[in-house]
Specification:
The complex is a heterodimer. Chain A contains 6 helices and 12 strands. Chain A is of the alpha+beta class. In chain A, helix 2 packs across helix 3. The longest helix of chain A has about 35 residues, at about 30-70. By secondary structure, chain B is mostly helical. Among the domains of chain B are: about 1-160, Orthogonal Bundle (Arp2/3 complex 21 kDa subunit ARPC3); about 470-530, no CATH class. Chain B is elongated, with a radius of gyration of 26 Å. Classes of the chains: A alpha+beta, B mainly alpha. The interface between A and B is large, with 64 and 77 residues.
């Protein structure tokens, strides 16, 4: 069809509409137009995303499980007979993997005495934002400004919730600010994301008032927010990987690698009821093995953790004193 | 409606796939391909401006409002509707070469990414920095370019499957195939058609297409028009075609299919006499437009009243309201007819045999060569800019009056229907032939026709064109300066010499007439563009 005056009028109308929407949203993000639009379209597209991801997630999990687990199942001659068996096997491993994630989640929440709603990630944001959508919503008790964790640590906070889905702002987003406490000493600081596309996009930026306490390997937990919203206390956040101290700076700066796997999120939990008592540092990962003669063997015995890529305290951090951990954290069986 | 639903469903699916799967991938450099952007580009390139704008706005709004989004509502809508419009501006590349089309799509993708990044920088300035944008843009654009052939291919294929045309008339000098797709949008119908007529006709053109007509035909005209040039290729054997001709259609299995492909290729690649706004003699054998779509009975030739009935000249379908009207079945005979009548009498036997040899179910227009008595290659058959001649169809869509000498049998001469431009046809047939006998034949409104026909034969035409400005005296004066041999054609090429290349959007019409900068003064208007030598057309 030809470019006529009519199509140019159409273009002008759509441009004006888009600019008007931008202006309204920029002026007042919670205006009724925007919220109504977001709510209705979000309901429709949220349901569709749930449906699509319920279709596609098993495929991805199957591929993952097949890639990781089944080495012996590649018998070309008996392929047709083995297809069903392999499907069952991978389903089993899938279940096991999910169970492991969930159990670790529950373990963590049990240690911190959280009450956690499990959910899976169904959609990822477009553009520079780092937000994800979970398949749990207000019907499951999710409200905005609740803490989201996975089995290893802090993921982010809920920023909006519809009846079936909710949107989570990841800790690595540039807008995210999390108050933290350094593990051994209890110094207070805050952690901000660097945003997608920045140099260390997977790392968080830590700023602490007392820069003397910053050392590589220092672990962080969240500080309780006011009325535990958005962050409940005691969620492990990450570990300092490099200190960028400047002489004479007011705050000490460091880069923190988060414990949570923020790039490969699958099953997460939303803390719907915070612990009554601040668990302090008791939910941090267990102390690393001593650099003893049995280090090779212990490394082999911990392969279950290594598979899931948990950023456990590495050998370089093992020399750090961890009084809180030693005092409070009882060694718990990590393997299920 | 089906097409709209399918297109909307495809866009929704692409948005969902983008949000649930693609954005979660971690690819090279942290970039993610933007399937939605690519899909909007492909839609704009295949569907045209309106399709591109609407698809872009819809997809962008969906991206702005679908759950994980937390940026300002309207960002992607703004970017994507601009990109869809821009893609429709480069859609002519789709008919020329694959590389050109892919390069255009890649350029539009890069433009869209850059626009989105700039908008994000402007609106979320503390959170999004230049460094982030500069780091994310190259991998994203690279992934887009890698994926754009896929989306373009799928989109074109979908469009072809849905029977959409790429409307070769619109913005490309590629010759038209059979003159069937004359857009009625430029020919602003005055008077009788009115705005309703415009919207109906142009609305039909948006969806495009001849509904159902020839859809299943292997390589019908609409399919051929849908595929365009690069989809067909320049030569038949090296045709990297998507669509009716070429590798998607598969190699031609039968001789008939091969002939059909050769015909389409010749038609689409301009192997036809594309300069020929007319030809003399019989039509080239490969260029018979298929399915004349009109009964041979309606050879109302001299339809000289503008706006009366269907303005297609020779083989237009009579409107039912007029089918029963008893009118003087009288054609205007000009001087040529005596000689022709003589020849026709001579050739009468041949004509009759031809007619008898043709089966009745076969399209009549092909054999109306004989029907009108203008038999064989020995008699000239001249059609000036009648939309029916293949290659001459670029003249269609504009209210230039058509003159057809003896065009009763010219295939497709009336398919430029829906335009109020008057046709003047000099009927020169032998009147004893079957065309007159079949049904309501030549319908003539003698009163209105006479002044236009007297004199030089074209002076009266300007009365009906949209460009008529009333300065006919100046035109007449200048016309004398033209070389004598061009005198016959000079009525069709007035624009270059007479009027400057200024915009000729009429100030009295349209939505933007009060906005001075919307008139694009001094720019090339659509009217001029048609008349440029680039189009090598009539005007």
């Amino acid at each position: 069809m030809r470019d006529t005056r009519r199509t140019r009028l159409l273009l002008a109308i759509t441009l004006v509409a888009a600019l008007a929407l931008i202006a309204i949203d920029y002026q007042n993000g919670s205006s009724s137009v925007i919220t109504t639009l977001r709510k209705t379209v979000g309901a429709v597209f949220g349901g569709a995303e749930r449906a699509v991801s319920s279709l596609t997630k098993p495929v991805g999990r199957f591929l993952d499980a097949g890639a990781s687990g089944t080495g012996s199942a590649s018998q070309a001659a008996m392929k047709q007979q083995l297809i069903r068996l392999r499907a069952e096997l991978s389903a089993a491993t899938l279940d096991r993997a999910q169970y492991r994630q969930l159990s670790r989640l529950l373990q963590l929440s049990g240690r911190g005495s959280y009450r956690v709603v499990a959910a899976s990630v169904i959609a990822f944001a477009q553009g520079y934002r780092q937000t994800v959508t979970l398949d749990a919503g207000r019907a499951d008790g999710i409200r905005p400004q609740q803490t989201v964790v996975d089995g290893n640590g802090l993921v982010g906070q809920v920023v909006s919730a519809s009846s079936k889905t909710c949107t989570v702002l990841l800790a690595t987003d540039a807008r995210s600010v999390v108050g933290v406490r350094l593990a051994p000493g209890g110094q207070i600081g805050w952690v901000t994301g660097q945003g997608r596309g920045s140099a260390g996009a997977a790392l968080l930026k830590l700023q602490v008032l007392d820069s003397a306490a910053l050392k590589v390997g220092t672990q962080l937990v969240t500080v309780a927010s006011v009325r535990n919203r958005p962050f409940v206390p005691g969620v492990p956040v990450g570990k300092v990987v490099s200190v960028r101290g400047k002489a004479g700076a007011l705050t000490g700066q460091a880069l923190v690698r988060p414990f949570a796997q923020l790039t490969g999120l699958d099953v997460v939990g939303i803390v719907v009821s915070p612990p009554r008592r601040d668990p302090r540092f008791s939910v941090l990962p267990p102390p690393p093995p001593k650099p003893s003669p049995s280090s090779v063997g212990s490394g082999g015995s911990r392969s279950g953790r290594g598979q899931t890529g948990t950023p456990s305290p590495s050998a370089s951090a093992s020399v750090l004193p961890r009084p809180g951990q030693a005092a409070v954290g009882p060694p718990q069986p990590r393997h299920t | 409606m089906t097409r709209k639903l399918i297109a909307a469903g495809a866009l929704t699916a692409v948005v969902l796939v983008q949000l649930t799967i693609v954005n979660g991938l971690s690819l090279l450099g942290g970039g993610t391909p933007d399937l939605v952007l690519l899909c909007v580009i492909a839609f704009g390139m295949t569907g045209g401006p309106a399709v591109g704008v609407i698809a872009g706005f819809y997809a962008g709004l969906a991206l702005d409002l679908a759950p994980p989004a937390s940026h300002l509502v309207g960002q992607y809508a703004l970017v994507l509707c601009l990109v869809g419009y821009g893609a429709s501006k480069v859609r002519f590349t789709l008919r020329h070469s694959a590389f050109l089309a892919l390069a255009a799509a890649a350029a539009m993708a890069a433009l869209g990414e850059i626009m989105a990044a700039v908008l994000a920088l402007m609106l979320d300035s503390p959170d999004v920095s230049w460094a982030m944008a500069a780091r994310l843009l190259p991998p994203s654009v690279l992934l887009d370019i890698v994926l754009s052939p896929v989306t373009l291919f799928v989109s074109v294929r979908l469009a072809v499957a849905l029977g959409m045309t790429l409307a070769p008339l619109d913005d490309s000098p590629v010759p038209e195939t059979g003159g069937s797709a004359a857009p009625a949008t430029v020919a602003a119908p005055a008077g009788a058609a009115g705005m309703g007529g415009v919207s109906v006709v142009s609305g039909a053109r948006i969806r495009g297409m001849p509904r159902g007509r020839r859809r299943g035909a292997p390589g019908g005209d609409s399919l051929a028009a849908a595929t365009g040039r690069w989809l067909v290729g320049d030569v038949a054997e090296a045709a990297p075609a998507i669509g009716a001709v070429g590798w998607l259609a598969g190699p031609a299995k039968s001789r008939r299919a091969r002939r059909e492909q050769a015909r389409l290729t010749a038609t689409l690649t301009g192997a036809s006499p594309r300069k020929g706004v007319f030809w003399v003699g019989r039509h080239p054998p490969g260029l018979v437009p298929r399915a004349p779509t009109t009964p041979p009975s309606t050879s109302g030739l001299a339809r000289l009243r503008p706006g009366s009935g269907v303005p297609g000249s020779a083989v237009a379908i009579p409107r039912p309201s007029q089918a029963g009207l008893a009118r003087p079945r009288r054609a205007i005979h000009l001087g040529l007819a005596d000689e022709q009548r003589k020849r026709a009498r001579r050739a009468n036997g041949r004509a009759r045999t031809t007619r008898l040899a043709a089966p009745a179910s076969d399209g009549g227009a092909r054999h109306r060569v004989a029907v009108n008595g203008v038999v064989g290659p020995d008699l000239p058959r001249i059609a000036f800019g009648t939309g029916g001649l293949p290659g001459a169809g670029r003249a269609a869509g504009r209210p230039v009056p058509r003159i057809a000498f003896g065009t009763g049998g010219l295939p497709g001469a009336g398919r430029a229907a829906g335009r109020p431009a008057p046709r003047i046809a000099f009927r020169s047939a032998s009147l004893g032939s079957a065309a007159r006998a079949t049904s309501d034949g030549a319908r003539t409104a003698p009163g209105s026709s006479a002044p236009g026909l007297r004199g030089s034969g074209y002076r009266g035409m300007y009365r009906f064109g949209p460009d008529y400005r009333g300065d006919r005296t100046a035109r007449v004066r200048r016309r004398r300066r033209q070389p004598r041999f061009a005198r016959g054609m000079s009525g069709y090429q007035p624009s270059r010499s007479r009027q400057p290349k200024t915009a000729r959007m009429r100030a009295g019409h349209g939505a933007f007439r009060r906005v001075p900068w919307m008139r694009r003064a001094g720019d090339r208007s659509a009217v001029w563009r048609i008349g440029s030598t680039r189009m090598s057309g009539l005007r």
